[in-house]
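Action item from last week, closing it out:
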Amino acid sequence: MLKIMREKGLVERVEKGGRPIWQARVRQETASSRSVWEVIDHFFDGSAHQMVAHLLSDKKLSASDRSKIEELIQPQGIDPKQQDR
């Protein structure tokens, strides 16, 4: 795993006190973003929309997570149930 991460430039191996130490080369936020987009590209043909639709239709998604995702994507102050009226 570390070899793959090293090839991707995420970690580096340095010597400290005569011992090898692995340390991050990028911030967690940067690595997370890069990884999420790799998943979107690989599994959802580059479509974030398809990924979100998949998450929302997945039975494993908790009600709490579903609610939080819906809050993030709803325009502020607009009730989706009232929007079509």
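Closing note: The CA atoms of residues 15 and 21 lie 6 Å apart.
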